[in-house]
Design brief:
The complex is a heterodimer. By secondary structure, chain A is mainly α. Chain A contains 28 helices and seven strands. Chain A has a three-stranded mixed sheet. A two-stranded antiparallel sheet of chain A has the order 4-5. In chain A, strands 6-7 form a two-stranded antiparallel sheet. In chain A, helix 1 packs antiparallel against helix 4. The longest helix of chain A is centred in the C-terminal third of the chain and has 46 residues. Chain A is globular and about 110 Å long. About 5% of the residues of chain A have low confidence. Chain B is mainly α. In chain B, about 75% of the residues lie in helices and about 0% in strands. In chain B, strands 1-2 form a two-stranded antiparallel sheet. In chain B, strand 1 and strand 2 form a beta hairpin. The longest helix of chain B has about 35 residues. The model of chain B has no long low-confidence stretch (mean pLDDT about 90). Classes of the chains: A mainly alpha, B mainly alpha. Chains A and B meet through strand 2, helix 5, helix 6 and helix 27 of A and helix 7, helix 12, helix 14, helix 16 and helix 17 of B.
């Protein structure tokens, strides 16, 4: 396949070593943050270092983008390399080097760009934590950016693995930032451990690739693909994509490894925006896009990705519909949108998946940051039943309207960027020759309606309607200082209208406002590639970026296998029809209907007649035939409980048994029992040692005789 | 006198001086003695010419000790033993400094025995004569037993006796095996010698059945020391009862004698036996990984938890070694050093809060990050190194051990066929998940969460009144942990020189294995074919019925 659709070959370019600054700068800022913590430097110095370093690294990426002319491989230094022979399979090579193609740059642009903006936002958001905590927070952010850059820019899968676990570490440290709150500690732990399950899959996939292709460097892997894989271990080569997929599902929170992401919302909101919405969770998409040629070899692997993605999108959307915590709604929406990306990868449009990642990064970061601003201003309140009419409160207009933009984009309102990126995915699914992909396409459209509903449920509840708010009272977030200000606690018991009580929400200041405005602009601008294509019939920048990478070569191969003779520009080719219309028009109509329909239902239930929403819920719960549905949705389909019962509890009980057995059986009975044999034997011979001299003499003589007999025997045997 | 003997004898002389010096002076003498030992070894490492050829240096035979039996005082290092000796010498001064406030009674004896312990471990690594190795190997038990029995916890006597008897019994098998090989050497060449290279050359020529038993008895001796499941039960108790510095040396250096013994004796001496028995060892290793990890999960004693985690980690190390290919062997050797650094550091960290609170029970104590942020930072770092986070040292060894196991298959392309393969790697890999689980649970209890302190006991109040220990780490304690932290990060970022240096040793150790494993596979295939023939024959009468 590679012969028909060659993956562009990378050239070695040591002169581009300066691009490595994109990795080095966040590391430097992490060190500086540590120095700030050690020297107890006051003020916002850690934030200054971090923002400057990230901005500089964004500039480095921009320069690299300008200088880009084709895939390059940039060696930096030897990391883990050794050889025990000259053959391809007699070495292990994992240098610290960069592999830069357009996919790398595409990812790095939004990772470093958003990283800079969110770090700036956090400089204000975290200001109540000034001191060691402030430095610790920005240390985490810096380490995250370093690890993410290594994941994306690394030249081989071991560097990817370094970044993969490194972002997991940053995530662990930042979710558990407020380490005195047990729920935050538990969430951090859960995130790391669930990710580790996926990581094992990734590690095994890496070993598998190495065993079959003899290298772990992308450029050589892609080259080696031409000769095809060789089955040298007794596992089939077709397992490679399945193992890699497991890693991707862990990091990108897909079924069955998704339950850590909602809990990760325990972290400070900028962390949720940066790590758990915009960048880290897209690492799984990146991995599959990067290794797409290997997936393309195995259609059943791609079908699995599609099914998991489509299924997770629906599952998460149904849960998101029934949550009351704003951040958790957005967390489930993230899982759901990631599901779309995997659906896109599975049905064969890497462009759609990557472009959706791109647009999603902007609007979801924006949404989280607006939620953070609300949380910051309203003493940690995130319950959408306890907030209303925020847009009428002075100083909150910017937050409300930027949130509106974010919601429109998430709902894939017609002609927004997300509408185009989601369309690219659904179009591919609906026009597929496989019936199950078509089914998944329709499922995706249904999910889109649900998405529009729950998104605007949040916005109509929080930003519209009569003004009403209560500061968080339950201590869920409020006792945790970063999100709640001191005066929030003082009024925690009070609830009611702003005019009547002493609690005043305080509107965001310049850093948060600037970042929200910039992100809103970015969110809108993220649509330009698609607008340029749809309206000006120009080139689609995003598509161009993906087209030059390994992701596109794989996708073309899939296309070719499905419909031999189709051109290389597969993503452009309009195939088939949707509801009797030309596919593009049909999807526009159906997609717009789903989106607007969802918004209208939300408007009715949550703006015009809020009482009817409660009535609906009561009616559903009263009907014994249907009541399982709202219960399951509100209780997250009991996935956590099922995992607990299926895995954690039996393992824990087994561990207790082993612990007991180790102490009382293995050590107590076996080891001590054997140790008692000599003592028992001693008792047997005790009569000899009564104190009488002849007893000792007898045993001594017997002992000497035994030794002599043995020595003689050995001596005789030696001369045989 | 050579630098090697300097590094061995400096602590011995130090111990002698400690015996006559005052208590105050004894601390400084022991520190100087260990630093001198480290300096001598470092100088030796700088002029070490054999980094890239895997040979012994120096190769000259040492002076005769017992000429009649051919026992000589030959010392010399190859890369692997030099790294392990350096690790020991590196940890010794840190342990001495770390013990300054922990040990308050019988101080002189403590430092004296501790110095002898260090000297005997370095002697064991440096020995090029099997009996000299045995002396160092076995003598470690004496000071360690005394350190546990005198300076340990409430069950110290039981722990010390169990450790002594258990490991002593194990090494009897090893000694018997060594003497057997020496005897065979005497029979074939007519002269006694215990030179390890000469013995190895003799042993590999033995018939396969002899090698089988040779390997088995060497393995039993070293498996107790590693410790390999199910011979591990002395370790948690010993660790639990040992004083902090004793635990550090026990985990970091003494257990390495077991894995080093496999590398130096069991594997190269009896390749036929090793090939035959590697599946048994590998199975025991993965059982150890899973079994010990699960026990860690429900441990509430921080020190026992780390002790069991050592069992699991060294299980992975043994698995890498018995993958019988350069990748696994490199990983295993790297892992020995890593485990010494990160686990030693974890024991030091636990000792530091034990000194303050006199408890290691994670149900009583917790949330120390609030009170001891500096300590918490180190604790998190070393835990992450132990989990095997890439960028820190633990990852390199872990990844290579697992990778080596994974590719240990019937392929001829790496040049090293094996029989383990992906199935073993998957089960061992589950250990990575479990390691993250139990270590993060440990962190979640003692580092994170709301501050929980035990009720103040008299000792604590006493210490507080004296003001001997600040609530967070003192400068001295930071001085102890910082070199370890630097080493963990450095080896994670720049493992390349060490990997390059280990590589020739690994291939040298495995020299005989490709052929042995190939023959083994052929034999097995032949046996399977014979069995198939036999069953066909058994069915013949029914078919034909001619008779």
């Amino acid at each position: 396949m590679s012969a028909d659709f060659p993956i562009p070959q990378a050239v070695v370019a040591p002169e581009l070593a300066w691009v490595g600054l994109a990795l080095l700068l966040p590391l430097v800022s992490a060190v500086l943050c540590t120095v700030c913590a050690i020297a107890r430097l006051p003020g916002k110095l850690p934030a200054v270092f971090t923002v400057l370093a990230l901005a500089a690294s964004f500039v480095v990426v921009l320069r690299a983008y300008n200088a880009y002319s084709g895939p390059v491989q940039v060696p930096i230094f030897e990391w883990m390399s050794f050889a025990w022979g000259d053959g391809r399979f007699q070495q292990f090579t994992a240098p610290c080097a960069l592999y830069i193609d357009s996919l790398t740059l595409f990812w790095m642009l939004f990772v470093t760009g958003l990283g800079t903006l969110i770090a700036l936002y956090a400089s204000e958001y975290m200001e109540t934590e000034k001191g060691a905590g402030y430095a610790r927070f920005f240390f985490g952010i810096s380490i995250f950016l370093f690890a993410m850059s290594s994941l994306v820019m690394g030249d081989n899968l071991v560097m990817l693995y370094l970044g993969w676990e490194g972002v997991g570490l940053a995530s662990y440290l930042l979710i558990g930032f407020d380490y005195q709150r047990p729920s935050a500690v538990a969430a951090a732990k859960k995130a790391f451990i669930m990710n580790r399950i996926g990581d094992l899959g990734l590690a095994l996939g890496i070993f598998m690739l190495w065993a079959n292709y003899g290298t772990l460097q992308y450029s050589q892997l892609f080259q080696a693909m031409n000769s095809g894989g060789q089955t040298v271990v007794d596992w089939d080569v077709s397992l490679i994509p399945f193992l890699l997929m497991l890693g991707a599902f862990g990091k990108s929170a897909q079924f069955p490894l998704f339950t850590w992401l909602p809990d990760a919302m325990e972290g400070p909101t900028p962390v949720s925006a940066l790590i758990h919405a915009a960048t880290m969770v897209t690492a799984g998409v990146f991995l599959i896009a990067r290794m797409y040629p290997f997936f393309a070899l195995h259609p059943e692997a791609l079908a699995t990705v599609a099914w998991i993605g489509g299924g997770t999108a629906l599952l998460a959307a149904t849960i998101g519909m029934a949550q009351y915590d704003i951040k958790r709604v957005f967390a489930y929406s993230t899982i759901s949108q990631l599901g779309y990306m995997f659906l896109g990868l599975g049905v064969g449009t890497t462009y759609g998946a990557c472009y959706h990642t791109f647009t999603h990064a902007f609007f979801k970061a924006l949404l989280f940051l607006t939620a953070g601003a609300i949380m910051h201003g309203f003493a940690g309140q995130l319950d959408l039943r306890k907030l209303s009419g925020v847009r009428h409160i002075p100083g909150w207009r910017l937050v409300s309207w930027t949130m509106f933009i974010g919601c429109l984009w998430l709902a894939a309102f017609p002609y927004t960027a997300a509408f185009f990126s989601k369309d690219a995915i659904l179009l591919k699914a609906l026009t597929s020759t496989r019936w199950d992909f078509v089914f998944l396409g329709w499922l995706g459209l249904f999910t889109a309606a649900l998405t529009a509903y729950y998104t605007f449920r949040v916005w109509f509840r929080v930003c519209c309607g009569p003004v009403h708010f209560e500061p968080a009272a339950d201590g869920h977030h409020a006792d945790a200082s970063p999100d709640a200000h001191g005066h929030g606690n003082a009024h925690a018991a009070k609830a009611g209208h702003a005019a009547d009580h002493g609690f005043h929400p305080h509107a965001p200041k310049w850093a948060i406002s600037t970042v929200l405005a910039l992100l809103a602009i970015g969110t809108v601008a993220a649509g330009f590639p698609a607008y340029n294509e749809a309206f000006a019939h120009g080139t689609n920048w995003a598509q161009k970026m993906i087209a030059g990478s390994s992701a596109a070569a794989g996708a073309q191969a899939v296309e070719h296998a499905a419909a031999p003779g189709a051109g290389a520009n597969a993503d452009h080719a309009a195939l088939g029809t949707v509801l009797g219309m030309d596919a593009h028009t049909g999807l526009l109509v159906v997609g717009a209907t789903a989106s607007i329909g969802g918004i209208l239902i939300a408007a009715y239930l949550h703006l015009l007649s809020r009482a009817s929403a409660d009535a609906l819920r009561r009616a559903l719960l009263a009907n014994w035939f249907i009541r399982w549905l709202p219960i399951c949705m509100e209780r997250k389909w009991f996935v956590d409980e099922i995992y607990h019962g299926l895995f954690r509890l039996p393992l824990w009980l087994g561990s207790q048994v082993l612990h007991f057995g180790d102490k009382h059986f293995l050590d107590g009975v076996l080891v001590d029992g054997i140790a008692r044999i000599p003592i028992a034997a001693g008792k047997l011979f005790r009569p000899l040692y009564g104190g009488a001299l002849q007893g000792y003499a007898v045993s001594m003589v017997a002992g000497v005789a035994l030794v002599l007999a043995w020595m003689t025997w050995v001596w005789l045997r030696g001369f045989e | 006198m050579s630098l090697i003997w300097t590094s061995i004898l400096m602590p011995v002389i130090g111990a002698a001086l400690v015996a006559v010096a005052s208590v105050r002076l004894s601390k400084w003498i022991s520190l100087l003695a260990t630093l001198g030992s480290l300096a001598a070894l470092t100088l030796f490492a700088f002029e070490f010419p054999a980094w890239n050829n895997g040979q012994y240096h120096p190769v000259e035979a040492g002076p005769a000790w017992l000429d009649a039996a051919g026992i000589r005082l030959s010392v010399g290092f190859d890369t692997v033993s030099l790294l392990l000796a350096l690790l020991t010498a590196f940890l010794m001064p840190l342990c001495i400094i770390g013990s300054y406030t922990a040990v308050t009674e019988r101080v002189k004896e403590y430092y004296g025995w501790f110095l002898l312990l260090g000297a005997s471990i370095i002697l064991a690594f440096a020995a090029r004569d099997a009996i000299l190795f045995y002396v160092g190997y076995e003598f470690t038990l004496v000071p360690m037993t005394i350190l546990i029995a005198v300076y340990g916890g409430t069950e110290r006597r039981v722990a010390a006796i169990k450790m002594f008897l258990y490991t002593f019994l194990g090494s009897m098998f090893m000694l018997a095996a060594i003497i057997y090989v020496a005897w065979e050497h005497r029979v074939s060449s007519g002269a006694w010698t215990f030179d390890i290279d000469a013995l190895t050359a003799t042993a590999v020529r033995l018939p396969a059945s002899a090698q089988y038993w040779l390997f088995a008895s060497l393995m039993i001796g070293f498996a107790v020391k590693v410790p390999l499941f199910p011979l591990h039960t002395w370790l948690p108790l010993a660790h639990d009862q040992a004083p902090t510095a004793g635990s550090v040396i026990l985990a970091s250096a003494m257990l390495k004698l077991g894995t080093y013994g496999n590398y130096r004796f069991a594997l190269p001496m009896a390749p036929a036996g090793g090939a035959e028995l590697m599946v048994v060892v590998a199975v025991l290793s993965i059982v150890a990984i899973i079994y010990a990890s699960l026990i860690c999960w429900v441990q509430t004693d921080a020190k026992k938890l780390i002790a069991y985690s050592s069992v699991a980690h060294l299980g992975l190390c043994m698995l890498g070694l018995f993958a019988l290919n350069p990748v696994g062997a490199e990983g295993a050797v790297f892992y020995m050093v890593n485990h010494g650094l990160s686990t030693g550091a974890l024991f030091l960290c636990i000792g530091m809060f034990y000194e303050r609170y006199h408890t290691k029970d994670t149900d009583v104590l917790g949330g120390l990050a609030k009170k001891m942020p500096v300590w918490a930072t180190f604790m998190v770092l070393f835990t992450l190194a132990s989990i095997g986070l890439p960028g820190l040292n633990g990852f390199i060894g872990e990844f290579l051990c697992l990778g080596g196991t994974f590719i240990a298959e019937h392929d001829g392309q790496s040049g090293y066929p094996g029989v383990l393969g992906p199935r073993f790697a998957v089960i061992a890999g589950l250990g990575l998940i479990l390691a993250a689980m139990y270590l993060l649970i440990l962190l979640g209890k003692i580092v994170w969460g709301p501050l929980r302190e035990p009720h103040h006991d008299a000792a604590h109040d006493h210490a507080a009144a004296q003001g001997t220990l600040p609530s967070d780490l003192s400068a001295r304690e930071i001085l102890v942990l910082t070199p370890l932290a630097v080493a963990c990060i450095w080896l994670g970022v720049q493992p390349q020189p060490m990997l390059k240096a280990i590589e020739p040793c690994a291939t040298r150790m495995l020299a005989k294995y490709p052929d042995e494993v190939r023959q083994l596979k052929e034999r097995e295939a032949q046996m399977a074919a014979d069995a198939a023939d036999a069953s066909n024959l058994a069915q013949l009468p029914q078919h034909g019925g001619v008779r």
